[in-house]
Amino acid sequence: MTTQQKRSEIRSWNRKHESQVREIKYSFHLIKRSPLSLLGLAMIVAIVFISVFAPVLAPYDPLQVDFSQAFRPPSWQHPFGTDDLGLDVYSRVLYAGLYDLSIGVIVFAVAATVGSMVGVLAGYKGGKTDELMMRVADIFLSIPGLVLAMAASAAFGTRSLQVLVFAIALNRWPSYSRFVRGQTLSIRESQFIEAARSVGAKGRRIMLRHILPNVISPIIVNGTLDIGNIILTVATLSFVGLGAPPGSPEWGRMVTDGRIYMQAAPWIMIFPGLTIFIAVMGYNLLGDGLRDILDPRVRARMGA
User: Fold this and answer.
1) Do the domain assignments include residue 108?
2) What is the pTM for the complete model shown?
3) Could you tell me the CA-to-CA distances from 283 to 96, 211, 269, 289 in Å, in that order?
4) Would you say residue 304 has pLDDT above 50?
5) Domain membership of residue 41 as a residue range
6) Is residue 11 part of a domain?
């Protein structure tokens, strides 16, 4: 392919996606005008960065026991101190970030995918299909989320990443299905859906090509807010003994292991607890900002 042909294809792509590119640029412009959104984004980027590069940034092995270094207070050698086993708390906090953030993103992906498919199908089909699917969702919603996650986690009798993802996603998908169903009920009466039906488009194509893409943005906003709650749920399950195995570098597990030494060595639980706070606050601030940006009335006011 010649250089001229490549340039022609690029210009063609730009013309075809001009509105989408303009929308993305305008959204970034509004984010830059929202200090809280920028703060939340900075928090998330910082947490993700230190988690991904934990093997490079961590000075010690997070699982290397050294009883001679037990209960060392924060110092230049151990910035966050050490725990009862002599494990470096700073290194463990860094490695735990990848574990907790991975669960948050995976649970969101699973719950949003399942919930979106159910919600679109229920909202578009209506009738008995809608009634059946929403009653199933109501059954899950009627059980307190943490209790459902604890029951599912305890039922497997083992602790692993897969079990945690399943246990928490089991509680999260109904809220996405109800939200997407409401969006679908509104969109299915739109003129472009009627136009698609008039040219012979089948229900499956309408749901996948016309309805689902129009609910992705609200799902991402809800997911950004929800990831913070998922991280809290993971920490809570670990705190009550149903999350990560003992000794694992996981924020909630570290808080649990350090609570009995709260008076003698408070740093063991303070630093992982503070990291949980920063991660959850970051996702909540960014989610609130994105929700405002996607609101047409707020967009008009911010862009004025």
Assistant:
1) yes
2) 0.81
3) 17, 27, 22, 10
4) no
5) 23-303
6) no
